[in-house]
């Protein structure tokens, strides 16, 4: 091919591009900066954990026919865990999620005899048994509270003694002298047995006691009295991260629990009501027509629907003969259905922990 055919020359008569003859701007022409070549440096993988390198290893079945198939096949056939076990593990993971600081739970009810103290003890025991940190329940009932009777009594000290010696409290071992501990590791700080002294327990006293406990415990559950106008109640509600309202499966129990929410709404705590958890306690097995045995005229579904529209979550705790005894509570003596319902309640509370992801689990 000739030199001309290759077009390796420019025609002197061809017009000159306009940018060649344009005047130079006063600011000068911006320099052309060549783009940096792409980096060839290899960034190491973030982690070398077993899960990252090998993937999540299949978990061996822990119970039922799945476990026997897995063993009989020489661990070659792994049918996986049952939906029930998967559900339990998910609830347990929610209860065990990390918690920064102290989370405060207030247990409320305007009606006595609905099992508020029992739910306080069992919920606290569930948290204490499932988590590795410290959990304490405080008896703030001015009417001779019985929370301390739900665990073996190890000391006659009460919250009043703790406040009296507050200046000498500098370590967990100092607080432990005033509490009693149950088999689940739940600790209980008792109230005064003398109603006259308990009535003098003011909002300021409660705040002082809470300031001490927050330094050494990850969770504080407060068992309140039935009177919403009790002197310490204002501080209990103001300091609470979540409210748990207790109801029975009866009509008057449900109306009293709803009245508790009404009172909170009327006194400017509507945000707390929307974030609250309703517990229907002592639910008996359903009869043929869907009603509870012994309370055939009570439509439990309507009670659940009512609180579902007002609260963040609604949990049902079934009737259990061990809880009816009214004595010290051991989770090991509860029926499996009761323990499962308490774990669901604890998971619902834990969903409100700071940083917890929102969940909308369908009802079982």
Can you characterise this structure?
GO terms for molecular function: ATP binding; ATP hydrolysis activity. This is ATPase involved in chromosome partitioning. InterPro entries: CobQ/CobB/MinD/ParA_Nub-bd_dom (IPR002586), P-loop_NTPase (IPR027417), ParA/MinD_ATPase (IPR050625). One of its GO terms (cellular component) is cytoplasmic side of plasma membrane. There is one protein chain. By secondary structure, this protein is α/β, with parallel strands linked by helices. The chain has a domain of 252 residues: P-loop containing nucleotide triphosphate hydrolases (Rossmann fold, 3-Layer(aba) Sandwich). The protein is 35% helix and 12% strand. It is built from 15 helices and eight strands. The longest helix has 16 residues. It is extended and about 115 Å long.
What is the topological layout?
Elements: H1 18-21, H2 50-54, H3 64-72, H4 83-95, E1 103-108, H5 116-130, E2 135-140, H6 159-164, H7 172-176, E3 180-181, E4 187-189, H8 195-199, H9 203-213, E5 219-224, H10 233-239, E6 242-248, H11 251-266, H12 270-274, E7 277-283, H13 300-308, E8 313-318, H14 321-324, H15 336-350
Parallel strand pairs: 1-5, 1-6, 2-4, 2-5, 6-7, 7-8
Antiparallel strand pairs: 3-4
Helix pairs in contact: 4-15, 5-15, 9-10
């Amino acid at each position: 091919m000739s030199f001309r055919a290759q077009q390796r020359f420019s025609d002197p008569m061809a017009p000159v591009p306009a940018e060649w003859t344009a005047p130079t701007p006063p600011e000068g022409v911006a320099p052309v900066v060549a783009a940096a070549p792409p980096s060839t440096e290899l960034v190491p993988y973030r982690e070398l954990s077993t899960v990252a390198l090998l993937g999540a290893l299949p978990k061996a079945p822990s119970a039922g026919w799945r476990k026997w198939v897995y063993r009989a096949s020489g661990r070659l056939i792994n049918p996986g865990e049952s939906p029930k076990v998967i559900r339990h593990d998910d609830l347990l993971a929610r209860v065990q999620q990390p918690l920064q600081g102290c989370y405060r739970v207030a247990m409320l009810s305007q009606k006595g005899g609905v099992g508020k103290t029992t739910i306080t003890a069992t919920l606290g025991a569930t948290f204490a048994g499932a988590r590795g940190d410290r959990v304490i329940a405080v008896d703030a009932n001015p009417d001779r509270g019985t929370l301390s009777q739900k665990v073996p009594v190890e000391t006659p000290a009460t919250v009043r003694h703790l406040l009296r010696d507050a200046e000498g409290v500098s370590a967990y071992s100092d607080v432990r002298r005033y509490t009693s501990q149950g088999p689940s590791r739940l600790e209980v700080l008792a109230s005064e047995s003398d109603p006259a002294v308990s009535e003098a327990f003011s909002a300021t006293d409660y705040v002082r006691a809470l300031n001490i406990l927050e330094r050494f415990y990850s969770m504080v559950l407060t068992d309140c009295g039935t009177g919403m106008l009790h002197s310490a109640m204002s501080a209990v509600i103001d300091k609470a991260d979540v409210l748990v309202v207790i109801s029975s499966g009866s009509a008057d129990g449900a109306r009293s629990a709803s009245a508790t929410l009404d009172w909170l709404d009327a006194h400017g705590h509507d945000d707390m009501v929307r974030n609250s958890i309703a517990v229907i306690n002592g639910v008996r097995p359903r009869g043929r027509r869907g009603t509870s045995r012994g309370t055939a005229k009570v439509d439990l579904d309507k009670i659940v629907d009512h609180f579902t529209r007002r609260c963040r979550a609604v949990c049902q705790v079934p009737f259990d003969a061990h809880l009816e005894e009214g004595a010290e509570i051991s989770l090991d003596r509860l029926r499996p259905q009761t323990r499962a319902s308490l774990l669901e309640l604890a998971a619902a509370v834990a969903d409100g922990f700071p940083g917890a992801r929102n969940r909308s689990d369908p009802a079982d």
